């Protein structure tokens, strides 16, 4: 059980937010607040790098959806990179694999 | 200090030394008699019958009495309040007789003006050369400050106790309110569906947190019944509000059009409209279906649609079981136009349809609680129970959930619909 850690950096395509640790009921608010503080330009891409995410429950999924809503509102794109296997399974069940652009890692996600 | 007694101060002594010597000398001038009279505590000597033989000025001042009125005329107990007298007779005196001394006993003395002073009393018996008791020496310490402190402590404790009781009462009221709300999210009992046996179970992970799982079964027209089961995102009051909205929207939608995709589409519109613009997206997963029993064939036709919900299971009378896949159905409430996956099957006598929420498959198992029970685990369990009645299946699953212990940390809803074999009767009850 490791606490959620969020670090953001800028790539040529737009912000890349690395999410490590557990994204759950207790920590999802933290992600949403930090994402809300990001400024997104139209046409840019918000990449959520999930390589270090150890756990994601329905509150975590909600936070990812909130990120998507935020990006779309700014006329930006959203992409998930390096989705862990178990979360990928959940995304497939709930049909979100069709909604999010998915990339194997943040490198491919930040290539225009 | 004692070694300085009688010592002459050296002329070369520093000033500080001379000052302390002067203070010490002044102390020595304080005669034993004066110390006795004006000590910062009350002194009193009584004969063995309690008659006061000697008393110091300090105590006389506390009492507001003159020496002549006291010595040889009053007993120690005459100085005490009624309660003090009683305590003296029942505890103080007997203990003193037995032990020869007693200390730190809380008593109250009466003042001439009617006031009372709480004191801490200590007594010791003085014995003669042959060991016979001669008199009792008693010291009394003013305990007013201490009593006030204790009273303060007591008040503090009482206040804390009352706060605790209030908090407990509040908590009980809240639990009660939560329980009532929770019940409004789930049907009290399942309706009787002709030719179909229905059983359900709801596991609450925490009594404090309203659950986000839901299910229902209800008639939609003369032939069909609708059923649904799902899971809203999150926990707590917001999740409960969403659950409530979901449940009643689905019920109303089904009465208008019982087609599963139509019902989920209506729900999707309602949830999206309500939550998408709020900056706080909320959604649910749900399976909605209809069951149409055919009295002629003894079978029941199932039509269902899924919005992001794990696939339902079909347990056959012949001992097999399998998932009824509904891939690609989207979470309900996420997009304004969502696609839902449909599936259908026919239940023959002895077949059962099982709907569940992912609390079951996401339960952590194994010694270190790191692996998930999973779809495979559930399929194996279902295969082992294929051919059993919905009630028997739900009972078995309830046992399975109980066995997960603290590996099960999410709410879990179960709903089983089956066509009974000809030997069993149709019934509908909810297991608890």
Describe this structure in words.
The complex is a heterodimer of chains A (112) and B (432). Chain A is α/β, with parallel strands linked by helices and 112 residues long. Chain A has helices at 28-36, 58-73, 85-93, 106-109; strands spanning 5-11, 14-23, 45-49, 53-56, 77-81, 101-103. Chain A has one domain: Transcription Regulator spoIIAA, CATH 3.30.750.24. Chain A is built from 4 helices and 6 strands. In chain A, strands 1, 2, 3, 4, 5 and 6 form a 6-stranded mixed β-sheet that branches. In chain A, β5 (77-81), α3 and β6 (101-103) form a beta-alpha-beta unit. Chain A is globular, with a radius of gyration of 13 Å. Chain B has 432 residues and is an alpha+beta fold. Chain B has 2 domains: 31-142, Beta-Lactamase, CATH 3.30.450; 187-430, 4-Layer Sandwich (Phosphatase 2c, domain 1), CATH 3.60.40.10. The interface between A and B is medium-sized, with 16 and 26 residues.
Query: What percentage of the residues of chain B does DSSP assign to strands (E)?
Result: 25-35%
Kindly provide the radius of gyration of chain A, computed on alpha-carbon positions and rounded to a whole number of angstroms.
Answer: 13 Å
For CATH, the homologous superfamily of the largest domain in chain B is named as PPM-type phosphatase domain
Q: What composes the largest sheet of chain B?
A: 6 strands, mixed
Poorly predicted ranges of chain A: none
Q: Rg of chain B from C-alpha positions?
A: 43 Å
Strand runs of chain B, count? 18
Work out the oligomeric state of the chains in this entry: heterodimer
Quickly name the level 1 CATH class of chain A: Alpha Beta
In a few lines, what is going on in this structure?
The complex is a heterodimer of chains A (112) and B (432). Chain A has 112 residues and is an alpha/beta fold. Chain A has helices at residues 28-36, 58-73, 85-93, 106-109, and strands at residues 5-11, 14-23, 45-49, 53-56, 77-81, 101-103.
